[in-house]
Design brief:
The protein is an alpha+beta fold. Helix content is 17%, strand content 24%.
Amino acid sequence: MDREAKTDRSIWLNAHRQTVSIIDQRRLPHELVVAELVTVDDVIRAIQEMTLRW
């Protein structure tokens, strides 16, 4: 886990890296895994695979 990713949100803008960071919802509650979404295709894939849930 990225220790800099301490947040109370499941999705946030990583302005420094110009990406969107998310908590991988598939790994909860056993692991806290942060994923970075760089492209639109990354976002689409995250939604399709339920990595990101709304």
